[in-house]
Amino acid sequence: MNQTDTPPVLVTGATGRVGRVVIDQLLDAGVPVRALTHRSEAAATLPAKVEVFTGDLTVPESLDPALDGAGGVFLVWTAPPQTSAAVVERLAAHVRRVVFLSSPHQTPHPFFQQPNPMAVLHADIERLIAATGLESTIIRPGMFASNSLAWWVPAIRAGEVLRWPYGAAETAPVDDRDVAAVAARTLYQDGYAGGDYVLTGPESLTQAAQVDVIGDALGRRIAFEEMTPDEFRSLSEGTAPSSVVDMLLAAWSAAVGQPAYITTAVADILGTAPRTFRQWAADHAAAFTESSEGS
Question: Which Pfam families match (predicted)?
């Protein structure tokens, strides 16, 4: 691919767990990359080839310099909903293609059918994008494998019993790297306009089984103990909005006793099987050890 003939792709959420990997994937494919960040100092964390722009989704006009001359956008919505219409309008005025990181809120599986404020926002943005006539692709990751870093690292590093609700709830964790690879492929390769893809890992695992897999990666057993929903609510106070906590508890409760929803979308688009949770855990084992300084 000749870089001089390829318009750059703008990546929003550029320092996030998916956006950051999308940048690497695009660069590897020879695609020029622009990154949108809130703070100019974020440029230091990005590859030298990336053109960094400072902007904010809550100030739609701040996106104009980054959009001018771009060919596509990877859109990760990380702001309140009020400016979404104005942002999508600006995208439509400047670029040809948008890939939107959404959620599987339309998926007919109880895990994804719980009341969820984020799903409402995603659905609204999808409608806005559809109304513009942009070449659009919607990607809908299920449960991220990396959620276990935020949830379980403290107890595992401390060598404590891991207490968690709904250990029997089954999910199919998807590797962030696979989500990013799909996003990048649909940004730079033709044939995905109008595509709508639910992305999952390849296997259904209970939450307790996921903890066992992490233990295998660390070479030790991690004791697991069921926590009540009320205990989880109490522990989550101040760390997550109550609506998110309620949504998670409802989703896990609905997932008990039935296999997780699994798709072949990752393999269909990339031509390679999605990474298993065991692969993810092995690759991230250092994040669960006491000597690791960050996750």
Answer: NAD_binding_10 (PF13460)
From the centroid of its chain, how far is CA 238? 23
Predicted pLDDT of residue 292: 44
Q: How far is CA 14 from CA 46, 94, 131, in A?
A: 8, 19, 26
Q: Which residue is listed with tokens 């296999």? A: 259
**pLDDT confidence of residue 293:** 45
Is 0.85 surpassed by the pTM of this model? yes
Q: In which band, very low, low, confident or very high, does the pLDDT at 240 lie, cut at 50, 70 and 90?
A: confident
Which parts of 155-200 are beta strand (E)? 162-164, 170-171, 196-199
Cβ neighbours of residue 236 closer than 8 Å, sequence gap 6 or more: 245
Q: Which tokens belong to 227?
A: 């926590």
Q: Where do we find the tokens 């990013």?
A: 180
The β-bridge relationship of strands 170-171 and 205-206 is antiparallel
Report the alpha-carbon distance of residue 108 to residue 110 in Å, rounded.
7
Q: What is the pLDDT of residue 4?
A: 52
Whether the CB-CB separation of 182 and 141 falls below 8 Å is answered with no
Q: Six-digit token pair at 28?
A: 């590897």
